[in-house]
C-alpha cells in the first residue's frame, strides 16, 4: 500500500506510518503530490497552490486560492517585538539556527495556535507559518549583513514578496524577472514534500507528543540542517568551488569519493529511496540550464557539475550502488544565479519543505487520535549485572 511504512524491528512493536500525501516509487523515479505527478507542476509553477494541495488534499479552486493568498498577505508581518530577537544573534549566526529559533518563538507570540481545536484554526496557523517563514528568513539574511529590514509589500505575491524582503534596498525596489520567479516557485515546489524523510519524520515524531505546530516545524528545521539531508545543497557548492579553485580535477574528486578510506562523498549524489534517477534532479538540471542562459550567466560550477555527473554515471562504483544526482545536485547553482548566498540555501529548502511538514503534522495529529510515536530498538548491551560500590571498584 503506498505510503505504508512499519517501524517494527521484529520486536512485535509496530508503529506504522500511513500517509496519503506523497507517493514515491524509487526504482522508477516516480514522485506524486496527492496523486499528481511532479512533472505536471512545471507549467506556470505556483508554490502556494501546491502548498494548499499538500496541506488540504487537493488543488484549490479560485475562491480557496484567493482566500489563502489573502491570508498569506495579511500575515506576512512579524510582531514588532520579534525583531529584537534578531539583534540577539551574532551576525555570523548560521541562518538555520536563527530560523529554527524564530519559528519556535512564533509560539510565544501566537499562543492562540498552541491548541488547534478544528481545521479552521489549523488552516489559520498554517497560513501564518507559511507566510511568516519568508519574513523570518529574509530578516535573518538582512541582519547578517547589517542591512535594514524590508517590510513585506502587500501588493506582491508570495515568492516576489520574499525576494523583495531579501534584496530590495531603501533606494531601489528589487526588480522581479519572470524567469527568476518561475525558477524559485519551481524550486520551492520540488522541495515541498518527500514522504518520510529525516526532517518530516522528525516533525511527525515531535508532533505525536502533542507539541504545537510551530515547535514541531522548528524541530524539522534542525533535522534538515544536517549535511546528509538539507545541508547537502550548500555542501555541493563547496565541492564545486573546491574543484573550480583548482584544488583537484573532477576525476580526482570522484576517485576520492569512491575511496573507502576517505570521508569524502560526492555531495548531491545518492538517495535512500531513489535507486534510479531523482525526478527532481532531472527537472532542476533543465531549469538550471534554461535560467542561466536566459540571465546570460556563464557559471563555471554548472560545467563542473555536468562533468562530475558524466564521470559518475559511467563509473561502476556509482552504477553498482545505484547512485544518481539527487535534488541537491543542481539546486544550488540555480539559487546562486538568483543571487541567494550559499549560507541561505538550506533555508530555501526549509521554506519549500514547510507545507509538507505542516501536512504531515496535521495528518499525524488527526490520524492517530493523539497516539505518541514510540519506535523500539534491538538491545545489544550487557546482560543483567549488579551494582558494585565504588570502594570495591578497581
Ligand atoms: C535529501 O530522504 C529524503 O527523501 C531526503 C531528501 C528529501 O527531499 O527530503 O531527498 C533530501 O536529503 C537528499 C540527499 C542529500 N544528501 C547528499 O547528497 C549527501 C551525499 N549522499 C550520501 O550521503 C547518501 O547517498 C545519502 C545519505 C543520501 C543516502 O545514504 P544511504 O541510503 O544511507 O546510503 P549509504 O550511505 O548506505 O551508501 C551505500 C553505499 C556506501 O558504499 P558501500 O558501503 O556500499 O561501499 O553507497 C556509498 C556509500 O559509501 N555512497 C556514496 C554516496 N552515497 C552513498 N559514495 C560516494 N558519494 C555518495 N554521495
From TrEMBL:
<feature type="active site">
    <location>
        <position position="271"/>
    </location>
</feature>
<dbReference type="InterPro" id="IPR010953">
    <property type="entry name" value="Citrate_synthase_typ-I"/>
</dbReference>
<dbReference type="InterPro" id="IPR036969">
    <property type="entry name" value="Citrate_synthase_sf"/>
</dbReference>
<keyword id="KW-0816">Tricarboxylic acid cycle</keyword>
<comment type="pathway">
    <text>Carbohydrate metabolism; tricarboxylic acid cycle; isocitrate from oxaloacetate: step 1/2.</text>
</comment>
<dbReference type="GO" id="GO:0005737">
    <property type="term" value="C:cytoplasm"/>
</dbReference>
<dbReference type="InterPro" id="IPR016143">
    <property type="entry name" value="Citrate_synth-like_sm_a-sub"/>
</dbReference>
<dbReference type="Pfam" id="PF00285">
    <property type="entry name" value="Citrate_synt"/>
</dbReference>
<dbReference type="InterPro" id="IPR019810">
    <property type="entry name" value="Citrate_synthase_AS"/>
</dbReference>
<keyword id="KW-0012">Acyltransferase</keyword>
<dbReference type="InterPro" id="IPR024176">
    <property type="entry name" value="Citrate_synthase_bac-typ"/>
</dbReference>
<dbReference type="GO" id="GO:0006099">
    <property type="term" value="P:tricarboxylic acid cycle"/>
</dbReference>
<dbReference type="GO" id="GO:0036440">
    <property type="term" value="F:citrate synthase activity"/>
</dbReference>
<dbReference type="InterPro" id="IPR002020">
    <property type="entry name" value="Citrate_synthase"/>
</dbReference>
<keyword id="KW-0808">Transferase</keyword>
<comment type="similarity">
    <text>Belongs to the citrate synthase family.</text>
</comment>
<feature type="active site">
    <location>
        <position position="328"/>
    </location>
</feature>
<protein>
    <recommendedName>
        <fullName>Citrate synthase</fullName>
    </recommendedName>
</protein>
<dbReference type="InterPro" id="IPR016142">
    <property type="entry name" value="Citrate_synth-like_lrg_a-sub"/>
</dbReference>
Amino acid at each position: 500500500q503506498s505510503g505504508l511504512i512499519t517501524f517494527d524491528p521484529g520486536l512485535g512493536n509496530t508503529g506504522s506510518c500511513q500517509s496519503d500525501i506523497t507517493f514515491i516509487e524509487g526504482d522508477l523515479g516516480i514522485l506524486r503530490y496527492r496523486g499528481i505527478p511532479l512533472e505536471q507542476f512545471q507549467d506556470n509553477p505556483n508554490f502556494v497552490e501546491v502548498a494548499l494541495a499538500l496541506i488540504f488534499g487537493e488543488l484549490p479552486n479560485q475562491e480557496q486560492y484567493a482566500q489563502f493568498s489573502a491570508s498569506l498577505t495579511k500575515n506576512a508581518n512579524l510582531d514588532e517585538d520579534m525583531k529584537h530577537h534578531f539583534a540577539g544573534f551574532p551576525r555570523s549566526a548560521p541562518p538555520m539556527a536563527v530560523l529554527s529559533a524564530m519559528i519556535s518563538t512564533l509560539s510565544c507570540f501566537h499562543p492562540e495556535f498552541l491548541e488547534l481545536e478544528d481545521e479552521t484554526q489549523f488552516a489559520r496557523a498554517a497560513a501564518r507559518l507559511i507566510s511568516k517563514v519568508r519574513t523570518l528568513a529574509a530578516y535573518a539574511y538582512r541582519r547578517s549583513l547589517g542591512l535594514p529590514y524590508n517590510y513585506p509589500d502587500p501588493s506582491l505575491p508570495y515568492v516576489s514578496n520574499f525576494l523583495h524582503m531579501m534584496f530590495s534596498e531603501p533606494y531601489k525596489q528589487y526588480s522581479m524577472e519572470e524567469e527568476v520567479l518561475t525558477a524559485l516557485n519551481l524550486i520551492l515546489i520540488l522541495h515541498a514534500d518527500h514522504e518520510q524523510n529525516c526532517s518530516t519524520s522528525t516533525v511527525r515524531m515531535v508532533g505525536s507528543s502533542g507539541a504545537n505546530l510551530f515547535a514541531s516545524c522548528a524541530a524539522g528545521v534542525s533535522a534538515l540542517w544536517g549535511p546528509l539531508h538539507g545541508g547537502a545543497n550548500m555542501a555541493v557548492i563547496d565541492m564545486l568551488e573546491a574543484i573550480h579553485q583548482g584544488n583537484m580535477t573532477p576525476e580526482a574528486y570522484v576517485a576520492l569519493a569512491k575511496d573507502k578510506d576517505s570521508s569524502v562523498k560526492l555531495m548531491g549524489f545518492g538517495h535512500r529511496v531513489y535507486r534510479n534517477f531523482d525526478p527532481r534532479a532531472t527537472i532542476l538540471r533543465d531549469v538550471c540550464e534554461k535560467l542561466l542562459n536566459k540571465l546570460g550567466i556563464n557559471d563555471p560550477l554548472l560545467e563542473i557539475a555536468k562533468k562530475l555527473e558524466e564521470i559518475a554515471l559511467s563509473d561502476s562504483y556509482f552504477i553498482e550502488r545505484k547512485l544518481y544526482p539527487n535534488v541537491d545536485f543542481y539546486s544550488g547553482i540555480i539559487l546562486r544565479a538568483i543571487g541567494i548566498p550559499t549560507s541561505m540555501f538550506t533555508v530555501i529548502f526549509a521554506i519549500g519543505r514547510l507545507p509538507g511538514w505542516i501536512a504531515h503534522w496535521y495528518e499525524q495529529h488527526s490520524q492517530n487520535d493523539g497516539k505518541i510515536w514510540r519506535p523500539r530498538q534491538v538491545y545489544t548491551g550487557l546482560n543483567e549485572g549488579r551494582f558494585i560500590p565504588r570502594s570495591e571498584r578497581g
